[in-house]
Fold:
Amino acid sequence: MQAAIEELKKAIRDVPDFPKPGIVFKDVTTLLKDPSALRTSAELLASLCAGAGATKVVAIESRGFIFGSLVADRLGLGFVPVRKPGKLPAKCRRASYALEYGEDSLEIHEDAILPGERALIVDDVIATGGTAAAAAELVTGLGGRVAAFAFLIELGFLNGRARLEGHEVLSLLRY
Ligand code: AMP
Structure:
């Protein structure tokens, strides 16, 4: 297990000063293009989430879609996209949030989550936790509940999980 984690960490590229000075960007494209690392990351992330009791995967644009759909398929769950404003075609709800580097909004289709559904909220990276918190706000706004949050990468030094207090926060690779 530890060897697999180290293999995945090696497959992720650090890009300093992207998208702005001072940010070390965790670039997962180097992991995605490696067939062994891609499969291992999907399998380990899915097994980490298997006990969360989720009824839907809710994933955040855009890298969250990649890992979220792999996890949804492995757990036999449906997939719900949370997207940047103006991308989803049907009636939406919107939530605003602060990024590690800026501010943005997210949208979800109004009929994507039914009252009482348990969402597994997936993204590639948790930094400050603002993005994931906004996704949770969208889920609960539709009457759903958060089963757990799941991230491939947790930037622990930013303590994003404090923003998600009261919920289970799962992550595979911690820095
Ligand atoms: P936050 O809302 O601060 O937790 O930021 C999380 C979102 O921003 C995720 O969708 C990440 O893809 C992206 N992000 C933030 N910081 C980084 C980073 N250092 N490397 C890669 N992605 C990041």
In short: Residues 35-49 form the longest helix (15 residues).
